[in-house]
Amino acid sequence: TLLVAVAMAAVGMAAGVVGCFSVLRRRALIGDAAAHATLPGVALAFVITGSRGLPVLLIGAAVSAVASMGLLVLLRRFTRTRDDAATAIVIGVSFGVGVALISGLVARGVPGSGGLERFLLGSTASLSAADARLLVIVSLLSTGLVAAFVKEATVVSFDPGFAAAAGWPVWWIDFALVAMTAVMVVAGLPAAGAVLVTALVVIPPVAARQWTDRVGVMLILAGAFGLVSAVAGVAASAVVPGLATGPMVVLAAAALFAVSLVCAPSRGLLAMALRPR
């Protein structure tokens, strides 16, 4: 339980921090597209290597997710497809391909393919110490990158026109932000699975946004909310037998969002109700 709690705390914190820029840029569904695009990568990594080791499968998932995010950026940049339509296309096609590959491997009785479907809903029972160490390292690196380039990410999120006029590589910064979201989605796969992992990069930033108008404070709060949600979810699943970790983490994050929605000092429903007209 302690091993899972440490790994999930790191993933929850980093997912909250990285997800802030997706929320600020009104691209929350990018995480959902990345999550659904991980399944083809998991299946293809297993087919190519024959290994079910978590690092190998996560590398395949990351390559697939980043490739799908690149396709999403290209669709928005070079076609007249709307953001929501392009995102829906990537989600539907990638998820269909992933489910078809995984179910096909299991149906044909390919040796070692059983259990790949756990990436749909997540499973922390199989996490080893090496797996937890990998998730912690990825999470810390992602958080460090955000801290190092927070100024560039903030400007591109709020005023890409100014960033372009100043000579900044807006397209590459945009792709880097999308790719980091994909990486954090992949890191959350072992716990929440492709279906629920999007909540880790969306709910904590949205909850944090209720409390502040400053990007720096929002990043800190989102990381804290993600960490608390992960630890609370792991604790609940450990105390009550039969409760899956991933759904409990999501429910803990939802509870924090509900509290923020009601009790935030300026944006909360209670504050708005008591504010003089």
Spell out the key features of this protein.
mainly alpha; 14 helices; 277 residues
What does the average pLDDT come to?
82
Shape: globular
Low-confidence stretches: none
Instruction: Report how far apart the termini are.
Output: 50 Å
The assigned structural class equals mainly alpha
Number of DSSP helical runs:
14
Q: Using only CA atoms, what is the Rg?
A: 19 Å
Q: Report the portion of residues in β strands.
A: under 5%
Helical residue percent band: over 70%
User: Could you state the order of secondary-structure elements as H and E?
Assistant: HHHHHHHHHHHHHH
What summary fits the major beta sheet? none
Tell how many strands the DSSP assignment holds.
0
Report a brief summary of the structure.
With 277 residues, the chain is mainly α.
Describe what you observe in this structure.
With 277 residues, the protein is mainly alpha-helical. 80% of the residues lie in helices and 0% in strands. It has 14 helices and no strands. Helix 1 runs antiparallel to helix 12 and helix 3 (54-78) runs antiparallel to helix 9 (170-187). It is globular and about 65 Å long. It starts with a helix and ends with a helix. The mean pLDDT is 82.
